[in-house]
Amino acid sequence: MAPSLKTSLSVAMTTRLNPIFADAPTTIFETMSRLALQHDAINLGQGFPDDPGPEDVRAKAAQAVVSGWNQYPPMMGLPDLRQAVAEHYKRFHKLDLDWQSEVMITSGATEALADSLLALIEPGDEVVLFQPMYDAYLPLVQRAGGIAKFVTLRPPHWRLDEAALEAAFSPKTKAVVFNNPLNPTATVFTREDLELLGRFLVKYDAIAICDEVWEHVLFDGLTHTPLIAMPGLRERCIKIGSAGKIFSLTGWKVGFVCAAPQIMKVLAKAHQYVTFTTPPNLQTAVAYGLGKTDEYFAGMRQTLQTARDRFAAGLTEAGLTVLPSKATYFLNVDLAPIYAAKGSNAIDDADFCTRMVEQAKVAAIPVSAFYAEDHVRSVVRFCFAKSYDKLDGAVERIAKFVKKG
Fold it and tell me: What proportions of the chain, in percent to the nearest 5, are helix, strand and coil?
């Protein structure tokens, strides 16, 4: 085939592809991981822990795959796991859920997000998104035919603002995607924030898709309050959880969806045509894991909190301004004081991260990558769910990098 014909066919094919995905840029995670490999860097941009996860839970999965059922499980999920999810949320959040009509298992929380948006959104519906945000939100909203309306959150506290909500909501608002605790900012929203958002949901007759995958990864004695548990919001929320985050098994991709029966019926139909079901051995293991003692969950949080404190102290000593980290695996630093000390207001978190991976051989993520517009460019995110050797080594390299300027 002549090169010119190849080229013309390639161009023609490209124009027929969906631009939401065809024109999507390379993710910042892929970019920074590639640079980390290229420069043999300590990679604190990757959002997963070094810990392999609880051995007893992994053993249950292995046992189930060898001696258990490996054909299609029920579409809604194994009854054992659905019951375990309902019992778990009653135990920790005082939620009363009917496991048969209000609980569904998905292949990860991202699938649950996709199911929710596909089930709710019709072309032209508006969806409120809080930025910084998980990078899947916007393309999923757009692919479902929705129109994104952004609320920009700002450091250091990243709180909800009534005027900003009023500007984003309208009679066309169908849904809100609400991530609490919030990645990448490591924020836990206050009860006042939840009540404020709840008032807008009622006022505009909207549904909240609640991405609550970090619900167990909270520090400093904080506890999680699901939006679905707030007065008057039981019928207006889809609650999404993640076994991967609860058990530090991010590759398992087992998600939980909880919603009122009239919503769940439609979510289940979307799920039916997206993945249909989830590996049964992993479901069996997660059902076992959700019944673990309170000591497990407290110990998991304490281990991560100790790593957070160690890393935060090191970064502070290195001359960086550490922002509060109340949850998640992540810790953020504000670059503004460093640039101010150099007499510059031209803060660029992406440039800082690129220079840091090249010169200091430490990879992190610029938080501006989590915005679609009105970017905040002064914050950098690190993952601290790594070994002490990696964290201490990173601090030593970062200190030299910051000192060098």
Answer: 50, 15, 35
